[in-house]
Specification:
The structure is a homotetramer.
Chain A (H helix, E strand, L loop, with lengths): L2 E6 L3 H11 L4 E7 L3 H11 L2 E2 L2 H6 L5 E4 L3 H13 L3 E5 L6 H13 L4 E4 L6 H11 L6 E9 L6 H6 L3 H17 L3 E9 L4 H5 L5 E8 L4 E7 L7 E8 L3 E4 L7 E5 L2 E4 L6 H4 L1 H17 L7 H20 L3 E2 L2
Parallel strand pairs in A: 1-2, 1-4, 2-3, 4-5, 5-6, 7-10
Antiparallel strand pairs in A: 7-11, 8-9, 8-15, 9-10, 11-12, 13-14
EC number (chains A, B, C, D): 1.1.1.18, 1.1.1.369
GO molecular function (chains A, B, C, D): inositol 2-dehydrogenase (NAD+) activity; nucleotide binding
Family (chains A, B, C, D): Belongs to the Gfo/Idh/MocA family.
């Protein structure tokens, strides 16, 4: 069976998913929609699909699933519409910046028996998957301490930041999900600190650019997250899980892994420049998992509930910074 | 412009090239031929191309280029036929196991104004390309000593070995080409030692499984090659170039790069299992370079002359083992 | 000039310092005292020094300096006595578990014009010193985020834990000092979480074995500390400092750095087994710095004030765990 | 028991051994002799020993063992004299540059029941010892291919080179010994290439600065050696042993192992600057092994026979370069 896709949104992340869908032998990209016709046409030209309106994709008989890559504030509405239209839905994170709106949206998905997958791509990175597999196989015993380092090469434009919901909901949310993926137990409390060290404009926009977070589960397992909007050496993405019998870690990836030695020392090139190149395989695996779940009628993961849980942690982090205390989460 | 391909040979390496051609936006795989219809049909089914005879591909008006992946003893004949038919030719190494036959074949290519690229895939590996780039940029000064380690995870079947021309012409030939690629000067002499340490059956078939080679250029630059048909830890592929101002090296690649630590120590997973997975990017880049050369009418590299030069080094290595002395090469 | 030493306390850490003093060309170990004569005699036999009482060392005309390695609850008294006796004092951390007692002791040191160095050995590790040097040279720009991972191979006996002042004052105190050493700005607040994951007996003794800490400076710089009383792979001691222009890190050290590769992967041996072997060079450098400061009449660092500052951070961490909030520090 | 030492020769390597002897709890350095009184006095001052003549050390009743660090052309005579005087002898390599002279000297040692250890320090490096231990424990199965990379940071003065016996007898000799140490089987043939790539003055002095060697045992095991008199990145000392069940390797060592990351990439500092710092532990272990053998009356290793075997390989390498062929060794 081939799953027939419509792509909603032809921007930066839309292109990533267009490539992943087109490269999958079990999928075909049928149509793309975007408010900017030129963006949609660029993808249509490259992958040989049609440009349609969102309404046309909604009504189409030749489309089984959609990938939602439109601006965040449209996600929840689109999920509801396409769930009602009976399409399987892959939606980029977050579903919405408001927990109440997410809950309402999930209710519609449930009532319409919808299939919804949320785009936490890192769960599908082969290295992070191997970390999780090592845990599942008992190679490190009981998980005790998780360390997540996540630094962007540079800050996004301040305009983007203003609409982003803030660093915790925009950037740390991936690390919240990764912590949940690795801790093996639900998180009970959040403590966060935050500062503006990279760019004062980010502070003027009401956001932070450098944050540290401690998450704790009921039994006392801890996860530490370190985020910065700046890393001169590339896109820094590391995880380490320490357990009762050992430790497992995934180091950074490089596009080219040579080493040059001279009187200055031994130098390896910088890391990948950003997520589009770092997570190429993850995006391909993610869409493959979505397709496999559709074909087998299997439970979809990560689900809307996973999206909601990560958002709740982000909300708690914001509150923790404001109130300078540990915030319990349900 | 899209280059239209015919694939000759649907075996293990044929599949690798079918994938590389199909994944290239500037190419289309039109037809595949193989003596075993089932093999051809498998590729046709997977990539949506036709099964044709070699003769039909030769005569086809809708095919611009062919990839020759048939058994070695057919390469030279096919190159001549398709060069006469006006198709651009990508041929897996070697052109032939006999230097005289290679020369005769190259004469035909020249007379028919043919375009011939020989499949030394490692030149297109992104890591080895970066090594060469570092040299070209002068980062290590003048090249002095090249070290190439190349070990297969396991030996091929003895039947294959009997037809292979021996380890120097079958396996080391890639390292001879890599040495030429990196030394920056033609090789003037070859010294080789060889032994049977892995499997006595290989010795009974008249071949070796463990060899060491020293190549020297006229000015005294040296390359050392270490080969084994066995490596329990995966497909071992390393190069190091030492120069007057520094050193550059490319380490092995892994499909998954996690590390597990416990009382036994720190363990990273084995290397790639073999060339199909290790050199995925190299095969894609190689076909892309072939296509680019066709489209731009540029000189093709590595050429038939490169194939011939590597074969001459292999012949010299065989002679060196037999005569226990350094063999000069033209 | 040769500095003549008396050693107070001949236990585990006393032996470490006896070796460091004896190996220093500018020092001589004259006498050792311990409540257990056998322990003192062992050191006297090995290094060719005398066994004396503490009182005799206090009164001795042939001793310029003492190294205090007795139990923690004697440190402050001994510092006061030997400061009054005009000896230069190197004291193992902590001066006392009570901030008030430390302040009183430091007052005596000040009044007697004493020379006091506190044993934060990690500041003298060559790798960590190189990290600090890279920061001082401006190689990473302004410090933004410090990450300290510090895990003991195994927990000490519960009896020790009961007298230790708890994990923050006994173990994390080294990391608090290292954070101060690296942040380049005084710490303004402490947040800590703590749990018992390793051994329930530790919990019964009123202590924790797994803790995470976030420190923040006034300008917003952050340090994250991850501690565990268990690490199956050896004594885990890493630091990483992220700045506006780059990052500098010091990896773990191994006594033997070979690698064995086979079908299971690539395995390096475990880390050093504990501080005595991991910090051999640090202990030697530390005593050398103490001697150099005595000889040059230079300011001693780390000083009693550094010991006090680290203890105040430990106290704040305890309070943070109890009150589940960020604790400001003066 | 304490072994009482005399040191013959107070130059660069003499200082290294003075430190090793003085740092050993079972040894005492009693006297030092050197043709340059100032050199001897420097060591005497630093380690608190006497300056004596060679004759006085020979006749001394308070000296059990000597360390010979004088110029190479005096080694054989001194070994004979001190063997007759009943002293245990540690002699820096080589015993002599002439195989016949070495044999004659060893005969005297044998006749006088002498104890002679030859200074192949690398056998005592903890990392290389661990490589050998891994082999002995069967972790890599049967040894098949050994790779030794050995590059000096810079060439010695041409005056030294003229007296050195040439690169094979001066520098490669250590690698010949290491190959013997690791191959587990005697070497049957030598092939060597050599060139002048670093400094034409070395060529004018009749020597080479860049050499590659292949050694082969009777059963076909191979060792490859790569030498250069130049390495801009420090003292390059690596070994790798490939066997039927796996591989074991020892990487280079660094005095400081930090890493700085920025837009240029990830940089680690250069290697140790030369053997005095790289092999500090090896020199200490070597003297400790010599002392232990004396105390236990055990067989001394590496012995004069090991020195002779390495020299014979060096002679064969010289001949191989001259005759461009593989040279059999007895």
């Amino acid at each position: 069976m081939t799953v027939r896709f419509g792509l909603l949104g032809a921007g930066r992340i839309g292109k990533v998913h267009a490539k992943a869908v087109s490269g999958n032998a079990d999928a075909v990209l049928v149509a793309v929609a975007d408010a900017f016709p030129a963006a949609a046409e660029a993808i249509a030209g490259q992958y040989g699909c049609e440009v349609r309106t969102i309404e046309a994709i909604e009504a189409a008989g030749d489309i089984d699933a959609v990938v939602i890559c439109t601006p965040t504030d449209t996600h929840a509405d689109l999920i509801e519409r396409f769930s009602r239209a009976g399409k399987a839905i892959f939606c980029e994170k977050p579903i919405d910046l408001d927990v109440g709106r997410v809950r309402a949206c999930m209710k519609v998905v449930e009532e319409t028996n919808g299939k919804l997958m949320v785009g936490f791509n890192r769960r599908f990175d082969p290295h992070f998957m191997a970390v999780r597999k090592a845990i599942d196989e008992g190679r490190i015993g009981e998980v005790e301490m998780v360390t997540i380092t996540s630094r962007d090469p540079g800050a996004p434009p301040v305009d983007y930041i203003k609409r982003s919901g803030g660093i915790f909901r925009d950037m740390t949310i991936h690390d919240f999900d990764m912590a949940r993926f690795l801790l093996g137990e639900e998180i009970a409390s959040v403590f966060a600190t935050a500062a503006v060290l990279v760019d004062p404009e980010i502070g003027k926009a009401g956001d932070y650019d450098s944050v540290s977070v401690i998450l704790q589960t009921k039994s006392g397992r801890q996860a530490v997250i370190s985020n910065s909007r700046r890393a001169t050496y590339g896109y820094d993405q590391r995880i380490e899980v320490h357990g009762s019998k050992g430790m497992v870690s995934a180091e950074n990836q490089r596009p080219v892994s040579i080493e040059v030695a001279n009187g200055e020392g031994y130098t390896r090139p910088p890391l990948h420049d950003f997520f589009m190149t770092r997570y190429t395989e993850a995006y391909a695996n993610e869409i493959a998992a979505f397709i496999a779940a559709i074909e087998k009628g299997a439970t979809i993961s990560p689900s809307g509930a996973d999206g909601l849980a990560a958002l709740a942690l982000a909300d708690a982090a914001v509150k923790s910074v404001e109130e300078k205390r540990q915030i319990p989460v349900a």
